[in-house]
């Protein structure tokens, strides 16, 4: 761990030292955080309440909502607290814990999105076999596997990051503890870490994106064979929410992690990208699924109508 030459605490630079910017950031991110928590809790509650939604697709959406609540909670609460203090600090142990949970949640989301694409592939390309292929046991295995891959990925990288010495500086040029800015301030040789980021990612995480692409190639081919335009539109609509979630998550995350740390000179740009995949994605997912999914939207409408009726 190299504690002898590592600081007892780190300073997070955040977005700005200007008090007005920090107050604005506090209000903005607190609003986003509350929307994310309420939205994801609502999705979970609605799906549990209506038995006709107890299908594999909604099982994965519940997992995604639980994941997103943990995911956004790894970064935002500490950032909000630091917005209101003079010194934006995080303890060494706090940084370890934050990096561990951030990596675990991010890697789990990546693999869970791949599992959801497989679910859509089976539902559209093999509809008659769907109840057999996507049975309860398979769904549990895919969800459990996603969480285990995320935990394994995080343990490897967290241990590998904090074996380094951080004697160059204790200022992390980010709003949370992330690997690239931590490697930047290390005075140890980080070549192994960079190799591990690509190597472990290539084994555990990188295959997820091609699997999603391949699934949708087969899905689109199947949809194009449907004779009626209405049928094609209705079938494709079941995939739109998932495609939007995949696009938001991968396009921003890949831009930061799939390049050498030595090339990460645009750290301000990395912060903006990180806002998308760590904060906006967990907020956007429940909005995307509730607005684009007709069954879920109808269940929400019923619940709201019933509550107003009883009042």
Q: Can you lay out the helices and strands and say which pair or pack?
A:
Blueprint: E1 9-12, H1 19-49, H2 56-73, H3 76-83, E2 89-91, H4 92-125, H5 130-133, H6 136-161, E3 171-172, H7 179-184, H8 191-205, H9 208-224, H10 229-257, H11 267-292, H12 294-310
Task: Provide an overview of this structure.
The chain is built from 12 helices and 3 strands; from the N terminus they run βαααβαααβαααααα. With 311 residues, it is an all-alpha fold. It has a single domain, classed as Rhopdopsin 7-helix transmembrane proteins. The protein starts with 8 loop residues before the first strand and ends with a helix. The model has no long low-confidence stretch (mean pLDDT 83).
CA(first)-CA(last) distance: 58 Å
Specify the CATH homologous superfamily. Rhodopsin 7-helix transmembrane proteins
**Strand coverage percent:** under 5%
Give the rounded overall mean pLDDT: 83
Helix content: over 70%
Main sheet specs? 3 strands, mixed
Unreliable stretches (pLDDT < 50, length at least 5) are none
CATH architecture: Up-down Bundle
């Amino acid at each position: 761990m190299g504690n002898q030459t590592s600081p007892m605490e780190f300073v997070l630079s955040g977005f700005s030292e200007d008090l007005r910017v920090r107050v604005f950031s506090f209000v903005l991110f607190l609003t986003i955080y509350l929307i994310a928590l309420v939205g994801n809790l609502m999705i979970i509650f609605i799906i549990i309440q209506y038995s006709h939604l107890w299908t594999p697709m909604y099982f994965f959406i519940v997992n995604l909502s639980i994941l997103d609540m943990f995911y956004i909670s790894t970064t935002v609460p500490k950032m909000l607290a630091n917005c209101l203090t003079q010194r934006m600090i995080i303890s060494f142990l706090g940084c370890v814990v934050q990096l561990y949970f951030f990596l675990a949640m991010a890697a789990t989301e990546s693999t869970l999105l791949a599992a959801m694409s497989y679910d859509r592939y089976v539902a559209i390309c093999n509809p008659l076999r769907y109840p057999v292929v996507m049975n309860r046991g398979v769904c549990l295995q895919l969800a459990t596997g996603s969480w285990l891959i995320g935990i394994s990925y995080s343990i490897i990288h967290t241990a590998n990051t904090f074996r380094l010495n951080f004697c160059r500086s204790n200022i992390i040029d980010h709003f949370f503890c992330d690997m690239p800015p931590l490697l930047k301030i290390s005075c140890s040789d980080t070549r192994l870490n960079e190799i591990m980021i690509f190597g472990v990612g290539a084994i555990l995480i990188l295959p997820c994106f091609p699997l999603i692409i391949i699934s949708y190639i087969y899905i689109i081919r199947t949809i194009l064979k449907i004779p009626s335009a209405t049928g094609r539109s209705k079938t494709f609509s079941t995939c739109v929410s998932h495609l939007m979630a995949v696009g938001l998550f991968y396009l921003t995350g890949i831009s930061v992690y799939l390049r050498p740390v030595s090339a990460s000179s645009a750290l301000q740009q990395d912060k903006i990208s990180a806002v998308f995949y760590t904060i906006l994605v967990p907020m956007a997912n429940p909005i995307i699924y509730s607005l684009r999914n007709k069954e879920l939207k109808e269940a929400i409408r019923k619940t709201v109508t019933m509550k107003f009726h009883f009042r």
